[in-house]
Amino acid sequence: PVYNLVVAVDDHDMNISHVIRGEDHVSNTPKQILIYQALNWNIPKFAHLPMILGSDGKRLSKRHSATGVQSYRDEGYQPEALLNYLSLLGWNPGTEEEVMHLDELTAKFRLDQVHKKSAVFDQKKLNWISGQHLAGQTNQDILTGIRNIQPQWGQSKNNDYCSGVIELIKPRSKSLVELIEQSEYFFKDPEEYNRETAKTIWKDEAGIILESLRDKLNELSGWESAAIEAEFKNIMNDNDLALGKIMKPVRFAICGTVNGPALYAVMALLGRDSCMYRLDRAVKSLANS
């Protein structure tokens, strides 16, 4: 009883015109309306939003490992992306549009479009929307966001280089933290190679192929992605190699991983000296894998 009284008094004193809250408060609304009427106050408009459910169909709570907004911030999810996703839990603009900024959401939102059915929190959908926002941002804005999380990121390189890294990685990232993690090899040589991965892609001829490629690349007059790609194709044609036979071991040697952005663009950004060093080091390190 005290709760219903104090919230009615507080809302009246603050000139609240609309009370929008979860549907778990439906039972409180008629009680509060009676208090407004008894005190001869104007009754605000009430709206009740559907609850957010976990994947099991039950109300989202700590047992679902529900994450607070601060945790998403720490994981590199940006405010507009999180707000965009949350706005779509129980509402949509009546179109197929899903990626929207705050001004668009504000202009399109209508209470009569709020769903009556509870929404299920979908982490994969949040990741997708977050990735779409990230891909649409300028590299400078992303760099500023990254430096807010990790001030030392990319400090060993100039801003043009860092912008190049962001351009390559952002289409593959769902958050700033993931972008930071995926970009490590742009600033640091691989310290060691996963031996289990090496067994699957580093065949007997890999060292010979990489040495031949290294020699060809070292002769290039310029170091652009198109020229690098041309030498890859020459090596493949000369040795009758499938693309994967050369791309996978080269990426593994240079990046320490088997996945990533376009390899030619990665190599062009890393520079000739870095690529030659990493190829030589990988051939020596993985010779007996």
TrEMBL record:
Residues 149-282 form the Aminoacyl-tRNA synthetase class I anticodon-binding domain. GO terms for biological process: glutamyl-tRNA aminoacylation. GO terms for molecular function: ATP binding; glutamate-tRNA ligase activity; tRNA binding. InterPro entries: aa-tRNA-synth_I_cd-bd, aa-tRNA-synth_I_codon-bd_sub2, aa_tRNA-synth_I_cd-bd_sf, Glu/Gln-tRNA-synth_Ib_cat-dom, Glu_tRNA_lig_a-bdl, GluQ/Sye, Rossmann-like_a/b/a_fold. Keywords: Aminoacyl-tRNA synthetase, ATP-binding, Ligase, Nucleotide-binding, Protein biosynthesis. The keyword Calcium does not apply. Residues 1-128 form the Glutamyl/glutaminyl-tRNA synthetase class Ib catalytic domain. Coiled coil: none annotated. One of its GO terms (cellular component) is cytosol. The keyword Oxidoreductase does not apply. Gene3D superfamilies: 1.10.10.350, Glutamyl-trna Synthetase, Domain 2 (1.10.1160.10), HUPs (3.40.50.620). Belongs to the class-I aminoacyl-tRNA synthetase family. Glutamate--tRNA ligase type 1 subfamily. This is Uncharacterized protein. It comes from marine metagenome.
